Amino acid sequence: MSASTPPLLPPLPVTWYDRGMSRFRSSALATRRLDLWAPIAVTVLAALLRFLDLGHPRAIVFDETYYVKDAWSQWVLGYPSAWPADADKAFASGAVDVSETGASFVVHPPLGKWLIGAGMWLFGPGDSFGWRFSTALFGTALVLLVYLVTRTLTRSTPVATLAGGLMAIDGLAIVMSRVALLDVFLAFFVLLAFWFVLWDQRQHTARLDRALAGTQDPPWWGPLSWNRPWLIAAGVALGAATGVKWSGVYVIAALGVYVVVTDALARRRLQVGMWPMDAVRQGIVAFLYLVPTAFVVYLSSWTGWLLSSDGYMRQSAVSDPATGFWSWVPLPLQSLWNYHEAMYRFHVGLSTPHSYESPAWQWPLLVRPTSMYWQQDGDTVQAISSIPNPLIWWGGVAAAVFLIYLFVRTRRVAYAFVLTGIAATYVPWLLYPSRTIFQFYTIAILPFLVIAIALAAREIVGGGSPERRVAGIRVVTVFVVVAVVLAAFWYPVQTALPVPYEFWRLHNWLPTWI
Using one digit for the tens of pLDDT, what is the confidence trace for 133-191? Predict the structure, then answer.
């Protein structure tokens, strides 16, 4: 019985990178420096594109009207309060103490607003830089995280740099890091949970191999491992993701299935006799580490509301006068249950028409990106469009399809890992065809798409004859160059820079992009 752990991906043959870097091979220090400076360079690039003139425009942009004001009142009171109808202009001018005394019905959990509020507390609630500081910070960290996840998957600095670099320059990633919305926090915590699960998978599989190495007869049952700290860390990240938006629940389910299936396949490879039930047995342990941890983190995000007395529905009790069954539950938790029922009814019934709504089936085609800001003064336009880099987006969709083919052919865990991320962040939205949703929700999918591009590029460059590898290098190089050119072309109309009206019109490749 073989106890050797199969690599996530096979080693690459000698490529352009190996030849170009051959002069460094005599110096381990130089190689370490390359591994150090590559992520730093990618992160610095991301920070420049996200923090440069972050306070512009000094106005409440798109759905910032829901989150900036609520974040500040939550920071001050512990719960979001109601605001006058004309509060946006007053808030943007620095008059931040205009909240009404009544509580506001907010339909997303509090964690994202706590993070936005932290930036406002640091830099002042009347400063538009402060509104957006936390999203820019997490958006920059998300780029580094894309690099780290890809590096962990492939153990290749150039492949990881490609993924991180594409994330750094993508327009959707830039815009969602420069407006005070919740989705970049969700994307960060989701990818963080996947990274932690990746580390858990490596350690757990290696532990199985050591435990069963040298076994003369295949055992009926494998070892039951309780030493899985990375799963606890993943539970924390998943609880944080759900504490930003409820769509984190789908990721909890997807990662739970992924953990059980990969464990089952590892036990089958090691010839464990009862490997399906053995994996279920280990899956119970994984459940106990993931779900209760996520629940505790999620519940803790409601601390401010729970400790208040005036939050929305804070004093409502679960009505059951006939039996009094719920009387043993503390009133704050009864109120929280009622609040969650109200939130659920809102989300299920949300079908208000919006000019920029885009059902999930349109997302791969990039039919209707979201215009978040528009200001015209004569022939000069300032705009913020959350459109992704078209080449990166469509290339990512094509790469995801390619990974499906590669997975069917090779059964590589790395491909399944990325495809699980795409499925967990996309497929659930297909269940709500009539709900009002937007293209910018795809910021949670984007990290997995750029990783898919990097893995596809690795396959194109690394396989086949030398001639094929040279051709693959040229294809990847052209792709990167064109992506950079398009990123520069789109950046002004994603950051509200003043541009001529005709220049803005050049970006409307499809009629639905206007």
Answer: 999 999 999 999 999 999 999 999 999 999 999 999 999 999 999 999 999 999 999 99
* The pTM of the whole model exceeds 0.90: yes
Report whether 179 contacts 172 (CB < 8 A). no
Q: Strands 380-385, 499-500: parallel, antiparallel or unpaired by DSSP? A: antiparallel
pLDDT greater at residue 433 or residue 449: 449
Which H/E stretch holds residue 40?
Answer: helix 28-51
Instruction: Compute φ and ψ for 38, nearest 5 degrees.
Output: -60, -55
Distance from C-alpha of 345 to C-alpha of 267, rounded to nearest angstrom: 43
Describe the strand order of the beta sheet including 499-500 as a list of residue ranges. 371-377, 380-385, 499-500
Report d(CA 289, CA 266) in Å as an integer: 20
Domain ranges of the chain: 305-348
> Which pair of structure tokens corresponds to residue 303?
């601390």
Torsion 299-304-305-309 (CA) sign: positive
Q: Residue 4 has what pLDDT?
A: 43
Q: Is 378 helix (H, G, I), strand (E, B) or coil?
A: coil
Q: CA-CA distances (angstroms) from residue 65 to 91, 128, 420, 486?
A: 10, 12, 34, 30
Helices and strands (H and E) in the chain: how many: 19, 3
Q: How far is Cα 207 from Cα 274, in angstroms, rounded to an integer? A: 18
Q: What is the DSSP string of 43-112?
A: HHHHHHHHHTTTT-S-S--TTHHHHHHHHHHHHHHSS-B---TTHHHHHHTT------SSB---SS-SHH
